[in-house]
């Protein structure tokens, strides 16, 4: 592993540990972004299962989105994950940004999820 990836993994683990401690029994909204796509999951850590998931790789979204790597795609995924989580009975979550800064696509996804009905 390179030195940069080790630092990234440490940051991710540190953030996740803090979120799990602060969240209590709330599920967490986890975000992953790559250079081409963005993914979001609502995860119940106590049960170890995914409650809702959305990504820019989904077939119906791939045709409607210009690219999966822009703020527009992040907003679409944020609204979609909020809609699916609320449908499954989750309205309050803890936001897990991973090792990413709360900026750009991650921020756009979070704000769209809030508009969609999730509270965090």
Descriptive report:
- With 120 residues, this protein is α+β, with helices and mostly antiparallel strands.
- The chain has one domain: Nucleotidyltransferase, domain 5 (2-Layer Sandwich), CATH 3.30.420.100.
- The chain contains 4 helices and 4 strands.
- A 4-stranded mixed β-sheet has the order 3-2-1-4.
- Helix 3 (71-87) packs parallel to helix 4 (105-115).
- The protein is globular.
Summarize the helices and strands and which ones pair or pack.
Blueprint: H1 3-23, E1 28-33, E2 38-44, E3 49-55, H2 59-64, H3 71-87, E4 94-96, H4 105-115
Parallel strand pairs: 1-4
Antiparallel strand pairs: 1-2, 2-3
Briefly characterize the structure.
The protein is of the alpha+beta class. It has helices spanning 3-23, 59-64, 71-87, 105-115; strands at residues 28-33, 38-44, 49-55, 94-96.
Query: Domains counted in the coordinates: how many?
Result: 1
Largest sheet: 4 strands, mixed
Figure out the total of helices.
4
Order of helical and strand elements: HEEEHHEH
The general outline is globular
The average pLDDT score comes to 93
Proportion of residues in β-strands: 15-25%
CATH class type:
Alpha Beta
CATH topology: Nucleotidyltransferase, domain 5
Strand order of the largest sheet: 3-2-1-4
The span between the termini is 34 Å
What is the number of strand segments? 4
Catalogue the unreliable spans.
none
Structural class: alpha+beta
Question: If you compute it from the alpha carbons, what radius of gyration comes out, rounded to the nearest whole angstrom?
Answer: 14 Å
The CATH architecture can be given as 2-Layer Sandwich
């Amino acid at each position: 592993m390179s030195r940069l990836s080790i630092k990234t993994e440490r940051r991710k683990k540190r953030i996740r540990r803090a979120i799990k401690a602060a969240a209590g029994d709330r599920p967490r909204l986890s975000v992953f972004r790559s250079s081409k796509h963005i993914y979001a999951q609502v995860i119940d850590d106590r049960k170890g299962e995914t409650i809702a998931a959305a990504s820019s790789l989904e077939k119906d979204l791939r045709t409607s989105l210009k690219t999966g790597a822009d703020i527009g795609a992040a907003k679409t995924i944020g609204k979609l994950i909020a809609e699916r989580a609320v449908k499954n009975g989750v309205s309050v979550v803890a936001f897990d940004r991973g090792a990413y800064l709360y900026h750009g696509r991650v921020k756009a996804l979070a704000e769209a999820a809030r508009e969609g009905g999730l509270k965090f």
